[in-house]
Amino acid sequence: MRPGVSLPPGVLTELSLRIDEPVRTRATWRSIGTCTACSASTARPPARRGVITAIAEGLDVQVATDHDTVADYTPALRRLGLERQLLGIAGVEFETVNGDHCAWPLVPAPSDPFGGARRWWLDGREVADMYRYYAERGAIVTSVAHGASHFASAGYDTATGAVADASRFSFDFNAMEVHNGGGSGGRSRLVPIWAPSWMTIEEVRLWANGTVIERWDATTEPAVERRAGRAVWFEHHVSVQPDQAPWYAVDASGSQDLAPVNPGSHPWALTAPLFIDTDGDSEVSLPR
Q1: Which helix or strand (DSSP H or E) is residue 123 part of?
Q2: Average of per-residue pLDDT across 261-268
């Protein structure tokens, strides 16, 4: 039983309240998954496995973005006793006439079909209408999923800002998915090792603070090539100057189609950024 609070009229009452953190961590940074799908979407893992995977991968926050279903993974966390290790936020990934988009936070409506998600096959799926529908239901974050496809398919001109087909476009988003491991995502337009033999790696780049400072391919020394009898395409030690850049990352890519395993896609992988604490204060200052 929770203790009650009595506030008599005409009397000044002072209360000392404490709000516990939903996720306890000493880390300065928070890792959040904003485009994840589990049991409410076709061919997706159950929510239980999804939240366990999220925790295993080091996420602090996981947004439920099942396709065209307002979902919440918090009950799965509660059943597993993991509420203090991962913060779950209800949301949705919704289909429009121009690709998929995400909206959160939302509150699922158990009595409504699909948790209250808009049934676009009955009510239409115009981009602006879909954004408006979820904003009216409390969504604060509305994001473009799968990178630049929203821009490319509407004929967005990056030089002038003009849109060839306004009916397929909206500026009502306030976040954007740069890359999604499940598809191409248009990353080449947005972000100026190990791999199996059928996944050809052709180029490896070292990024420092958003700039490529070194690159390697088949013509360099060392060369990017698969080692005989191993699944290693590139090994190299690099000396860096951490006092000149707060973070480093490495990406690897290739141009060969991944058919028949994943036709239409090409090899690409990006490491998480390695943040450098140069002054030992447990914080990293990023350029604005």
Answers
A1: helix 120-123
A2: 82
